[in-house]
From TrEMBL:
<keyword id="KW-0539">Nucleus</keyword>
<dbReference type="GO" id="GO:0003714">
    <property type="term" value="F:transcription corepressor activity"/>
</dbReference>
<feature type="compositionally biased region" description="Acidic residues">
    <location>
        <begin position="730"/>
        <end position="776"/>
    </location>
</feature>
<feature type="coiled-coil region">
    <location>
        <begin position="624"/>
        <end position="651"/>
    </location>
</feature>
<protein>
    <recommendedName>
        <fullName>Myb-binding protein 1A</fullName>
    </recommendedName>
</protein>
<dbReference type="GO" id="GO:0003723">
    <property type="term" value="F:RNA binding"/>
</dbReference>
<feature type="region of interest" description="Disordered">
    <location>
        <begin position="1162"/>
        <end position="1268"/>
    </location>
</feature>
<feature type="compositionally biased region" description="Basic residues">
    <location>
        <begin position="1175"/>
        <end position="1193"/>
    </location>
</feature>
<dbReference type="GO" id="GO:0005730">
    <property type="term" value="C:nucleolus"/>
</dbReference>
<feature type="compositionally biased region" description="Basic and acidic residues">
    <location>
        <begin position="720"/>
        <end position="729"/>
    </location>
</feature>
<dbReference type="Pfam" id="PF04931">
    <property type="entry name" value="DNA_pol_phi"/>
</dbReference>
<keyword id="KW-0175">Coiled coil</keyword>
<comment type="similarity">
    <text>Belongs to the MYBBP1A family.</text>
</comment>
<dbReference type="InterPro" id="IPR016024">
    <property type="entry name" value="ARM-type_fold"/>
</dbReference>
<dbReference type="GO" id="GO:0043565">
    <property type="term" value="F:sequence-specific DNA binding"/>
</dbReference>
<feature type="region of interest" description="Disordered">
    <location>
        <begin position="706"/>
        <end position="777"/>
    </location>
</feature>
<feature type="compositionally biased region" description="Basic residues">
    <location>
        <begin position="1216"/>
        <end position="1227"/>
    </location>
</feature>
Amino acid sequence: MSVDMVEVSEPPRTAGIPQQNRVFLDFFWDLAKPDQEVRLKAVQSLIQYLSSENKVDELDYTFKRLVDGLAHTRETARPGFSLALGQVLSAFEDVSLQSVLDRIKEKHNLQFVKKKLARNAMFGNLFGVLALHQSGRLSKEPPVLLGCVQLLQNLSQHKQHLKDLPSKTMMDILTEIPEDVFEEVLMGALQSDLSSAFRTPEQLQLLLVALQHFPQALKPKKLKTLLGSSTIINAENIPKLTELMKMTARSVKKERVLPAVVLDLLKLSLKEGSFELFWNKAITEGMFREHTGPTHYLSFRLLGSALPLLSVDQLKKVLSGEVMMHYGEHVVSAQKPDRFKLAPEMDAYVSDFLQGCQDPDKQLAVMLGFSSLTNHGYPVVPSAWRVVQHLQPAALQAYVEWLRNSFLHPQMDQLLDFSTRKQKSNQEAQEEKEDSVCRLRKWIMSRLCSIIDNQHVKKQEDMIMEVARFVFFHAFFTVKKASPDIAESKEKLSVPLDERTRSVLVNLFFGLLMSLHHLPLTDDSTEGAVGQKRVFGVTADGTMWIYHLVQYAALLLNQPKHVQRTKPFSPEQTEAWEGMLESVANLKKKAKKGPTEENRAFQQLFLLVGMHLFKAPEELLDIIKDLQSCVDRAQEKKAKKKSKKQATAEEEPEWVEVMVDILLSLLSQQSRHIRQVCKTVFSSIVPHLTHAALTAILDVLDPEKENEEDGAVVVTDDANETKKTKKSEDSDEEEDHDEDMEEDESDDSADDSDADDEDMKEEEEEDETMEGEEVDQNFRLELMKVLQQKKALPTEEGSSSDDDMDDEAMMQLDKGLSALFSEQKKKNQAKKDEKAKMQKEKALVRDYKIKVLDMVEVIVSRQAGSPLVLSLVEPLLSIIERGMNSTTEQQEMDFLRRAADIFRNQLCRSKVYCRTAADRQGELHDLLDKLMTKSQKLSDSSVCLYYFSASLYMVKVLRGAPPAETKGEQSAADNYKFMGCVDVDRVSAVFRDALSSFLSRRKSPLSAQMFTDLFTRFPVLCVNLLDTAVQNITSGIREHQQGQACVLVLRSMQSREVQQLMSGSRWEELCSKVSCQLQESLTQAGSAENKTTKEKVVKVLELCQFLVKHVQHQKLSVDLNALQKVLQNLSSTITFKKTGKLEDTYWAVMKHFGVMKPKVEKTKPDVETEQNQAPKKKKGFLPETKKRKKRNKPILEPAAINSASMDKPEKEKEQVKKKRDKKTKQKRPADGAGAQANPAKKSKTLPESKAAKKKKKKKKKAQAGGQE
């Protein structure tokens, strides 16, 4: 009996350990949670607990729980238990690993476990071995090490579940054990796997790992014994290795990674000295036999990973081989968006290599290798390749020299050039060679400019200047004879530049100028200065980059014997150039006395216009002359040297007006750089702006004068190419040409593209357009004449037929018809061209106006306090109004959005405004009246919002700033009453009319929010308009307007400023008026079943709540008894729900009168009545009355006792049947024949078999629910 008691009591004792300490048990719960941080904290806490308590039974229980958790059904829990087991074994070294291994094998034995739990048991064994490995004690207990390896060998057979995890675990174990342990313990166990290394990729990787870590144990003699050869990579094993790599490539197709076994093979080939054999035979010849796919991608990834491992010679061979050719073909063919692109991965490989490599020779070899891979002369890597930022200075300098030499002397034979099948078949070799040179030169220049543009590239000023001079020289000059002063003249071009390439160079040069304008100082000393403003566009000595280039251009122009311009200057242009240099020199002299931003801006403008003189001399010739005279007059006026010119000053315009005209004309140039410089110059001269100059700017933006601006736009067609000469977007010239070139190469190289299909599509489109066009009456008459002349039309005397005409007459008729239709086609095409030209001109004008808005923005931001800003209100409003009513084109929307942002956010909401409006009171009041009158006539509420904002801005300008000397409450009230130059009565009348219009019109563009802003910003006007708002609580035209009047009154009465302005008897009088209006409004409410009525009642009740609360709190002498009676009677007219905004607001008001919301008493239902009632419906099941009965099943007569209960269902069935009969009668047509024409709808009922199955399932669920 006692023995039985011991056996029975032992399990509760062991299970009671965690019950005594719940903290201990929570550790195991936390190990199974999905959050990794929680699991790690649980492992750490468990070890600390076991170390502090040091109880044997708890330790034993810990091992039991951890071993059980290795096969947890939750995948995220297994790593937690495995990590905990490994850490516990590492902390308690007195515990034998053999005992834990035996416990793992016993618990997760695959032979005795159920089939359903076999997968979990496999993972239990795997994670158990991982835990033993993580303990760091495997090498100390060889038997356990051998047992773990044998267990992993058995698990490797279950690849369906474990994949390659056992083999990876085995490799991890091999990397951390000593060589002697491997030789003594594991060599025999792994001999079968090592000898069959060429069977699977996992076994091959096991051999490679063993070779890396145990070279003494696996000497060539041992390898010969195992494999039959003393080396792994040899001619005999290449086919086997190739097949294994192909298998590996297919296995990682979805992962898109480079398998470790392939990289280990590459490292082994370098170690054995057989790299060329491996690369040429296994990679180049073996992996690329198949079509494009995983094997190709694996080879490309191996190429990127091999870059840090190869020497300079090996890099040159690899990067000039067939693998690179295949990579180039992949890059070109993957231009389409739906294809896989490996180029980003290759960029990452190259970037990592350049970042980690410190050898300039290797860096240069890689850069030259990828830059030399060209498709029809154009390199496959982008010209803005950002990996160049990791180059060492020596490598960067050598790379730039190579680019320059390749531009001067392009050696196409030394490039790794490839062409697609279409390029080879459609183009001749000579034409292709010439075109390839042009494409290569364009890329080289783009590459040089992108190096300067990339601010992350470490470059010296000398190199920047050399590149800029190189691009400028070849864009505008040619060499006649070498000169020692001009380095670019020492070498001539082996292949002359064509005009197309030169035009690209011109655009690239001005893009380079833009980059130099934003280039920060390259001196490292400026980076360490804290709080120092960064300087852009200058060299270390403070000179602008563009000034150096202008000096270089002057040097070239002064040596006509050695170099010459591609388009020489005329005498007038040369004079303008020299005048520009003289003006810059004068400005620099004056800057020495005291440098200013204005002086610097004028210098920059002169220099930039002078450089653009090389590109468009005819357009800028007059601008330079006007600019010189304008700057001279500006300097003279500043120095007050105008005594002699006072007589002519009245006739001649101000220098600011001339400068504004010059800037407006310069904005039409295609240059983002000019746009920015013009904005900088205008910012410096905006303090001197006059009304005439502002008018010139506003005339450009005036929508009514848009037709006059079309004359400044010139669009010419030349060889089906439209050339925009004025007012076009400026970013075209500075943008990189890579996108166009990539489109060219993708179009040229796409094998699946067919030009014939495109021609057919064009012909079909032309036919469709010809068919869709309306018939021209003149064309009809001409056609009739031709047919009558050829006697192909029937006459009155008799009929004519084609059979009566001979062949010659038919040929003449065909010629006449052909000529007529071709002429008509030309006319239609001319109409289309004219329409396209008009659209382009409209886009150019809109684009130009967007750039002119820069000047308006400068005026608003820099001169917000100037009276001239007031002249911007009406023009900006007209732009917004016109833009809101126009089409929704993207360019138009951008222009509108920009104008609206300037007007509302920068003008109306600016804290700085004109405070000298005393002289213009009448004008501003008239403008305010005009704006408010126009706002009431608008149809669009969004446009009306801008007009109302402008009106508030006018009131703010008229009021000005209140005096800031007085203090205290009285001063605050005085500040509220302060209105400056505002005619309060007149302005109040204007806004009162607007408020009356808003509350008395059914459709008004005004809104309550507009007047709320008015009341908040100007309390004095709010006080004057309150009577109108209170009156419209009952007299509003509709219930919506009456509710809005309540909102306005509520916001006004809540304002502290209004309360202070209307303190005393005026405030009590207002409260009494509001109370009376509220009584009348609630009396008119009715039943409040309509939605608008409910909303109105809610707003009335909100106002009532504030009024009652305020009167009671301030103890005002206002009679609220009548309002209370109306509110009490309201509950009888309006049906309140349990909850809702209306009900809650009503009871919140009544609470102030002492009337509380009645509470609904919850009564418990009687138990006896519940039992007598029908049983409660189960959730999720249909009631009996809703269930469909089986029609084929005979209905049995019930007993006499249940007859009464069956009467009701029968009545319901009769009613349902009547309804069905009515529906069928309504759907049935008048005659019976039509019944077959309209097939009956499909029945929603399921087939009997399915319905029966569902009923069985429902019955089973019902039974199960009843058992529960």
